[in-house]
């Protein structure tokens, strides 16, 4: 004979099943703090390279993904291909500010590539601010937009001992740095957003970084230069494609968006 289960016990079991189901549903939907997704990914590309227009943007478009392209205002790839950058912006890609002349601190070791004209250590803060604002004017003439983000050339934050971004922080939603790390939504430093520098990286390595961001309920900013060539800092075009394919397949859980959109989202949700 089977034991008889009384009505109260049945009610207890039923309530337990309902509670377990509710917890399971909650577990599946919790930690979706990034525009309804588990994490956010930002794809950034520095220095206004031909390869960005010729290969990267068409590849992003094919996967329906958007990136941020940090343009150097004086670059011939900007002046000679304005209509193509304008088209990219119309498709949803961000044109970010990477200064007018890409000045880097030539007083640091390993900076033999820095010329006297582009030596940030010889700049005044006023000159740096003026050149950055000139670049903003140029970018607005291309895309018609007022909101955008900034990226420090070479990751250099200061002119001697002065944090020059403090003088232009109201001109941007955020500034991307070069130090890696996963920040909680409420602890993002808009004056120096973490990023993961890529050089010779495989898709497997980059995907692992995305998965770590997802695990931490955070976001990740990728920092690319060359993609398939044109720069000493480079990743293989096929490895880049594999990363995009992964992001496309994981779109239900991963929000891939330009830096300006992610920065705006963080600002709007940071204090909630």
Automatic annotation (TrEMBL):
SUPFAM superfamilies: Glycoside hydrolase/deacetylase. Residues 39-272 form the NodB homology domain. PROSITE patterns: NODB. InterPro entries: Glyco_hydro/deAcase_b/a-brl (IPR011330), NODB_dom (IPR002509), Polysacch_Deacetylase (IPR051398). Residues 1-27 form the signal peptide. One of its GO terms (molecular function) is hydrolase activity, acting on carbon-nitrogen (but not peptide) bonds. It comes from the Bacteria. One of its GO terms (biological process) is carbohydrate metabolic process. Keywords: Signal. This is Chitooligosaccharide deacetylase. It comes from Flavobacterium cheongpyeongense. The lineage of its organism: Bacteria, Pseudomonadati, Bacteroidota, Flavobacteriia, Flavobacteriales.
